[in-house]
Amino acid sequence: MATTIKEHLETIDNDLAALILKISSIANTISDELPYRRGKADTKNVFGELQLVADKWADQFIIEELRKLGLVKTVVSEEQPDIVPLNDSGTFNITLDPLDGSSNIESNNLVGTIIGIYKEDLPTQGKHQVAAMYILYGPVATLVYTAQNGVHEFLYTKEGFVLRGENMKLPEPGKLYGIGGLRKDWLPAFRQYIEQLEAEGYKLRYGGSFVGDFNQILHYGGIFAYPALIEKPNGKLRLLVESNTMSFIVKQAGGASTTGKSSILDVVPESITQRVPTYIGNKELIEKLEKIF
Ligand code: P6P
């Protein structure tokens, strides 16, 4: 009999398990609702990006579900301009990208929900996470989490989320590379680094959603980056709601992440909207990358 996520969570702190289980329970609602939440909203998020109906709905839905649980003190969401207070007596503080890659909905490509879980008040360094997870709405819905107990993947079935992979590690050596931004805008040294990987036979996989592209690196190894660009030295990805969460997961899976100079998990946030150049994947590739900057 396959291990359910509820059974797998029995080995961790009860409140943290209850939180992760709650988040897993919203996955199928979001997946079921996506066909009906299409089109553009008439608003922009704090980053000036046009919000989609699905972005706003998923954000509100998740925040209200977390509020009902009573364990969450605050939420920092990509779709909210400020920290959202939920329960004064809550134990956890959450970073949330409710529907990462939502521009992919129109073309039915991968989107997902990214969640970082902290006990410290936000904003704080990513290394202070107590758990991190994402849900990927793909051909099948999958959920990946770590509570500092390794990285574990679950498949959504008629019986709910069941264990598919336990203590996942990035395969060595990796096979893939996926890089955001336009090649002409990459820093010259980074362009040469990528051309070296191409010469070594790394295959390009880039799908326009961090959650989908990271998930490929977790399964096949390699490197994903939304790099520093000539005109945008901080790249595009948000430190709190995107890069810190995946960096916490990749470290538990034997990989690493960097801003180009140092670990993303060590960055002291200056604001909840801070962007960070993001390079993430096999440790050996990240170490090699840091030498060129
Ligand atoms: P581009 C999605 O909007 C996102 O924040 C990440 O999920 C993804 O990696 C990146 O932006 C895609 O950006 O410029 O390729 O559309």
Walk me through the structure.
The chain is of the alpha+beta class. It has 2 domains: 5-165, Fructose-1,6-Bisphosphatase, subunit A, domain 1 (Fructose-1,6-Bisphosphatase, Chain A, domain 1, 2-Layer Sandwich), CATH 3.30.540; 176-290, 3-Layer(aba) Sandwich (D-Maltodextrin-Binding Protein, domain 2), CATH 3.40.190. The protein is built from 7 helices and 15 strands. It has helices at 5-8, 14-33, 53-69, 188-199, 210-220, 239-252, 283-292; strands at 40-44, 50-52, 72-77, 84-85, 92-100, 111-118, 129-137, 141-146, 152-157, 160-165, 176-179, 203-204, 222-226, 255-258, 278-282. It has an 8-stranded mixed sheet, with helices on both faces. A 5-stranded mixed sheet has the order 12-11-13-15-14, with helices on both faces. Helix 2 (14-33) runs antiparallel to helix 3. The model has no long low-confidence stretch (mean pLDDT 96). The structure holds 6-O-phosphono-alpha-D-fructofuranose. Residues 100-101, 103, 180, 208-210, 213, 226, 236-237 line the site of 6-O-phosphono-alpha-D-fructofuranose (P6P). 6-O-phosphono-alpha-D-fructofuranose (P6P) is lined by residues 100-101, 103, 180, 208-210, 213, 226, 236-237.
Topology:
Blueprint (H helix, E strand, L loop, with lengths): L4 H4 L5 H20 L6 E5 L5 E3 H17 L2 E6 L6 E2 L6 E9 L10 E8 L10 E9 L3 E6 L5 E6 L2 E6 L10 E4 L8 H12 L3 E2 L5 H11 L1 E5 L12 H14 L2 E4 L19 E5 H10 L1
Parallel strand pairs: 3-5, 11-12, 11-13
Antiparallel strand pairs: 1-2, 3-4, 5-6, 6-7, 7-8, 8-9, 9-10, 13-15, 14-15
The site of 6-O-phosphono-alpha-D-fructofuranose has 11 residues, from helix 5.
